[in-house]
Amino acid sequence: MLYRDIQPRMLRYLRTLVGADAEDVASETWLNVARDLRQFAGDSDGFRGWVATIARHRATDHLRHAERRPQAAGIAAAELDTWAASDDTEHRALESVSTDAAIALIARLPRDQSEAVLLRVVVGLDAVSAANVLGKRPGAVRTACYRGLRQLSRWVEAGAEGLPAATARHRADPHRRNNEDYGTRVTSSGERTLKGTR
Amino acid sequence: MNTRHSRRLSRTAADQLLDTGTARPDMVPHRLASLLGAAAADGREHELARAEMAMAAFQAEHLVPVPTLRKETMIKSPLAKLLATKVIATVLAVTVTGGIALAATTGALTGHGAGRAGARRSAAPAHASVSARAAVHHGHAGTLSAAQLCRQAASRAAPPQRPAAATAHQAMSAAQLEQALASPAVSRVVTGPAFAALLATAGSGTNVPDYCALLLRLPGLPLPAALAQLPGGVLGPALAALPAPVLAQVLTGVPGPVLGELPAATLARLPGTILANVPAKVLAALPAKVLATLPTTVLAQLPATVLAKLPATVLAQLPTTVLAKLPVKVLAKLPASVLAKLPATVLAKLPVSVLAKLPATVLAKLPVSVLAKLPTSVLATLPPAVLAKLPASVLVKLPGSVLAKLPASILAKLHISL
Lengths: 198, 418
Description:
heterodimer, A: 198 residues, mainly alpha, Arc Repressor Mutant, subunit A, disordered C terminus, B: 418 residues, 4 domains, 57% helix, disordered N terminus
């Protein structure tokens, strides 16, 4: 149902905001959503925007209380190289990685750009809704999005050597994903990605 | 390797990609599209690990009864709780259709730039299913009885926090139906196309609660004044379906002119106390058996032709001024004690056989021409002063014991005539 749709997208968005604490903040967000559901009135887009706004507030609170900087689950240059170099037999596992890798790459954008891209592409909000979540004008969100997409495009075209060095905010953790139970889904987009990058 | 896809993303292409979900493949770098597709891919198991926690939160928040809104519907049984949870999930799903649709965007934003377009495509079936459900309702509307439409309207007007009622409106208690129909939401609900027939029948949205209350036999709801607003043609059949005691309860206090518009068959089922308010013109059409239940003061207003149908025992209670207007044939059936109260001018019209039963004191008031027709056995009971007025031809038939009481001057006349 609804949760199954929004939760993964919110989690990816939160991961860029609070890093490894994303799941805790997501849980707080859902508690908040459940509590205030009666106050919500609107359509599907409105609901996603509403949930995203709550998620962002909870993330802000979380960072304020934790007094620490977000720790993004980053992507290392080595991982991107692996992504580019893998052959077809690894597709099944790597397809699952690619979502994490894609999110991690987006997280490397400047904060305003990464949030704008995630809210629009991953959470699925339109420019106005995303602007409401971020407290900015739609025009500013469009610009941030464009800059973010252009930077992402540069990075994926350039391959590993084009990536910026991992910063404190984007701490690399190349081994994190190796222990996880990857999904089994394979899509054509993944294959194209792998083949095209090689 | 780095120059193969070095096409620069234009602002226009980026906006188009984000706004519409589509962009010309040659405008969007292939690898960027793949990256965004991967970022927006379907949720994976580990991302849904805490789903139960979220569901528990929804349950905890939305199964707690809100006293002001649903005091009778405390969800007690585990089954009811389960149902309620499902309903909340459904409500969420329907309210936020687009959200579900988004989940279907597997591998969004492929090299063909079909990402958000996919979302839109899958959103369409979600909306379609809602429309389909509405269509089902419309389909039913044609075959549903007015009472069923009323129940449906009530269930839709019921507070949304009462999920049990929303799923099983058939099971709504009379009190719940009344509460739902009394809510201002009803007039909004019935503006929907599914209720067009109901709205047309009741005349207006404000009439619907009263009309439905009648149909569903909810005597607590309709106000007499509100009933007056219902078209007579609607009110009649609705009332006709009510059992007599409920009917009486509903119509108590209803103004007479409104009652007057009801079919006689309905009125005939009302007790006299309520019928008393109905205009005499209308009552006149009722069967005698019904009229007989009316209070005398009401009957007294009815035309003599109507009263003539009533049993003598009923008429006997009417004031003499009313009885005096009755046809002789009717009066003849009345007990002598009643007739005795009638004016002599009325009695004079009665057949002799009837007059014969009247006490002498009454007969004494009758004109001589009438008395002359009475049998001698009756005349013999009359006082001598009355007999004295009778013509000699009548007096001669009287027995000697009676004649003996007459004054000598009268007897003298008799002897002369003899």
